[in-house]
Write a structure and sequence with these properties.
It contains three helices and six strands. By secondary structure, it is of the alpha+beta class. It has one domain: Translation Initiation Factor Eif1 (2-Layer Sandwich). A four-stranded antiparallel β-sheet has the order 2-3-6-5, covered by helices on one side. The protein has a two-stranded antiparallel ribbon with strand order 1-4. The radius of gyration is 27 Å and the shape is elongated.
Length: 143
């Protein structure tokens, strides 16, 4: 009725470890990081992407690229109608970047743009949509 506890475990079928087929498993696993962008013959690429200049520009601030290697300038809308442009990932002297952005946008607007700085998060917000102009300006500067 009762089985003895000293009884041996049942015999399981044996298995063979094969590393040859692991290449098919690796294809299914997500990559651990975002790959470096490939080298192209000429820039900008058909999508409009350009790599940052090497060496980086000698300025008191630096705008780091996003994880997908793009310039971190975005449109933002709050309260239904407040249109803002956000420059993220600013390192260094963010106040010097604010002055340069104001000098760049003043001729386009005819007045000094309204800006807001958050030193802790490294973001600069500009009132209005200027994402295309600021991306082109940052590319021209070498970021």
């Amino acid at each position: 009725m009762f089985q003895s506890q000293t009884q041996e475990p049942p015999d399981y079928p044996s298995f063979v470890e094969s590393v040859d087929e692991y290449q098919f498993v690796e294809r299914l696993l997500p990559p651990t990081g975002i790959p470096k962008p490939p080298k192209h013959e000429h820039y900008p690429t058909p999508s409009g992407w350009q790599p940052p200049r090497d060496p980086p520009p000698n300025l008191p601030y630096f705008v780091r690229r996003s994880r997908m290697h793009n310039i971190p300038v975005y449109k933002d809308i709050t309260h239904g109608n407040r249109q803002m442009t956000v420059i993220r990932k600013v390192e260094g002297d963010i106040w010097a970047l604010q002055k340069d952005v104001e000098d760049f946008l003043s001729p386009l607007l005819g007045k000094t743009p309204v800006t807001q700085i958050n030193e802790v998060t490294g973001t600069l917000r500009v009132k209005g949509y200027f994402d295309q102009q600021l991306k082109a300006w940052l590319l021209e500067k070498g970021f």
